[in-house]
Amino acid sequence: PAVEMVEIGAGGGSIATVDSMHRINVGPESAGAEPGPACYGLGGKTATVTDADVWLGRVDPKYFAGGAVQLLPNKSCEVLASNIGELLGVDDIAAACMVVEVVNENMANAARVHTVERGKDMTGRVIIAFGGAAPLHGARLAEKLGLSRIVVPTGAGVGSAIGFLRAPISYEVVRSRFTRLNDFDLAGVNDMLADMHAEAEGVVRLGVPKGKLSQSRTADMRYVGQGHEISVLVPIRTLTPTDISLLQESFDESYSRQYGRTIPGVDVEIVSWTVTVSHSTELPALAPEPKQSKTPPP
């Protein structure tokens, strides 16, 4: 199972370039960890978001990775000047500001598009900034999106790794089967869902021989002729004619909530089915905060 994501290539290692129309582009190419940003001192020759942040003083070069890595700000200055500034006729500071602003706008625009495509309202949303560089850009991103609250979790730099370690063991099976609600093959669908559950359970049991498992089912539904679907929960039982009506009601409710209306007189179809089997293990305790022998740098 996965959380739906929009990946736009906006990270600390994302490379900034100037195109033939004198526009700054950031990503999706990345310098990675090696050679990485120029400030790593590993031979990187491209300007990255991290280089821009370092040269603007937003990252302490002596306390990167808790002081384990000593950054070289002058290397950042060199690549920002040669790869960006000289091509646009601006100094290194202006070049760094431009790179930061472009990557911030890329993230903000992706959020706007993702929200609009799903009929959502961004008002009152909260930005959760995790990842090595996200907290540095959270405030400006919130400003661009008109949001007032940002959450920076403990251990934000390794947030994805923490999520991986704390996620339940799960397996998801997806099958395509076009089914109109007005011509619903109950026996065929029930057999298919049972097979999908058996397949998913068989995989999860490889890692969890014993213990209680949970199951969830969804159907991707749409009006006939549409190109986008809405996921609707499917009852976890042998489906009956009553459940067909429940699926119709759930679809109408979800569609109306997302788009503000339904479309009477148009048939509804199911495009694909998903069965997920999970085992929720006891979450490991979080490590205590290390004691500080001295006041950390600002």
Automatic annotation (TrEMBL):
Where in the numbering of this chain does the Hydantoinase A/oxoprolinase domain appear? 1-171
Q: List GO molecular-function terms, semicolon-separated.
A: 5-oxoprolinase (ATP-hydrolyzing) activity
Give the CC-aspect GO terms.
cytosol
> A biological process (GO) annotation for this entry?
glutathione metabolic process
Any matching Pfam family: Hydantoinase_A
Which residue ranges does the record assign to the Acetophenone carboxylase-like C-terminal domain? 212-297
What PANTHER family does the database record attribute to this sequence? 5-OXOPROLINASE RELATED (PTHR11365), HYPOTHETICAL 5-OXOPROLINASE (EUROFUNG)-RELATED (PTHR11365:SF23)
Name the record gives this protein: Uncharacterized protein
* Taxonomic placement: unclassified sequences, metagenomes, ecological metagenomes
